[in-house]
Amino acid sequence: MKLKKNTINNLITYIMVIAAFLLCQWMLASGKMTRSLKGQLIPICVYIVMAVSLNLVVGISGELSLGHAGFMSVGAFSGIVMSAWLAGAFQMENEIVRLLLAMACGGVFAGIAGVLIGIPVLRLRGDYLAIVTLAFGEIIRNIMNCLYFSLDGSRIRISFNNPNLPGTILINGPAGAAGVDKISTFGMGFALILFSLFVVLNLVNSRSGRAIMAIRDNRIAAEAMGINVTKYKMMAFVTSAVLAGMAGALYGLNFSTITASKFKFDTSILVLVFVVLGGIGNIRGSIIAATLLTILPELLRAFNDYRMLVYAIVLILVMLMTNNPTMRAFFERLRPKRSKGEPTAKEGESA
Amino acid sequence: MVSFLRFFINGISLGSVYAIIALGYTMVYGIAKMLNFAHGDVIMVGAYVSFCAMQYLQLPPALSVLCAMVVCTVLGVIIEGLAYRPLRQAASLAVLITAIGVSYFLQNMALLIWSSNPKVYPSVFSVGAIRLFDGELLITSETLLTIFANIVIMIALTLFTGRTKVGKAMRAVSEDKGAAELMGINVNRTISLTFAIGSALAAIAGVLLCSAYPTLQPTTGSMPGIKAFTAAVFGGIGSIPGAMIGGLLLGVIEILGKAYVSTELGDALVFAVLIIVLLFKPSGLLGKPVHEKV
Complex ipTM, two decimals? Predict the structure, then answer.
């Protein structure tokens, strides 16, 4: 049986993720993992999902989004409220089910935010679209700073700009959520990565995915072929928002305290860096870049105060090396030659 | 009424700072078609340099501003030459990420040199204040100076780009790089010059910003940077009068919003207005509409 090139590529991605998970499990079981790395496991999963979902917008749909952290924050806070509500109102003990429902809830609310934001945003193009997504990211953060949630018996109370709520406060405006039940697990993070890969890879290789890429490559030609531009752009945008919301819920339930300022512009940019360094439109690249760049500051601990400086320099140098024609030609020469007609994996995917 | 006037004038003053920063963004965008995210951090460097010049070298304030301008100009040209010029032909997203890398670099460099403890910027420009309505309305000299600087810079830049040969070259490069090169314009030098002017303006903006809001730390530049970028887009990115109008409007909306709507939602209001404007005028207030060719 001869498999299609796409299928093989996707299989490699799945196998890579599963192998990495098994390796981590083995390291955890045999005590070879350092404490700091152990703490990074769930954030790595979260950032992988964020990068994969942002790649759907930036790489596959071709729109630069600078407000991805906004969806993450919606997901995180709705997930936290959901989890607390399930525990408080239904005495739900099973943490896995609670986490699943919280993630679903985060995904739904982020998806709603995605629809609301997508309607105005997707009318714009290019850098204007980018700045509006940035604006929405900041607006979401500002609004989160004014929202208060409390659990009063079995009811959730919400107020805007009014901290005096009856019951136990769940989310306290700018002070964020405190005393969150840390129910996130590494296994669930792994499951979420597989789920988002499944969604994104299947979307990309479907009729809708081809329509989305056709719009990216030439909007006018795609429109002339009868493709509904708004519908497909929206599909990519909202799918990405839902996945980011689920990742956000996982992230929010991994820490005992969390504030809205955690999801500011810098976080959106961080995820964008993963996507660009991993290769725009290259899902596997996003996964690798997200993993490496989340661990990198940890690995650079030896540099102490200089580590973020080194991080910045590495970032600039990598961009120069991969994008400058002269440097690129230099590195091409270093690589072992391949037979003609078979493009290298990177070229094949990024094309 | 008097309080409204006071907020309004504060808004104009803050807006003037945004406008000066936005000019740097808009000029660089117009000519190099790149979003220079490191611009906000050049502001911070400018403010620190002038702070050090006054605090440690005991220079007079005017001279410290000059110092900051020189350092920022050199910094801007170096950044452009080392980080952005090699990527002239690359995808715009690659340049954007590099700009973010430069921004991280500057912030962390400042963190190492000046530490994260906020420094209090001396109020050097407060010579006095104008009192109106029996002292109810107080206009500080910083406010006046900021507005005045804004007007001078605006006029100078308009004259520069409109009347001088170099300014004409800049406009030509932003219109069509290839054609400008064929006409004998040195594109690289013109782009360097644009970065130099933008960075010098950033230094002035840094000093003005810190004399109004005197806490100085390595992240001082990032939020005003983002807001000024918003202002540039608001007015139509690439347009010099647009940056001016965008900056002023943004400043006024922010201060009035914080005063009358909600302190927490002031920023959100600014961005909401931006979104509404872009929905009706997708290329900003004064931006040229882009026609698509099939």
Answer: 0.81
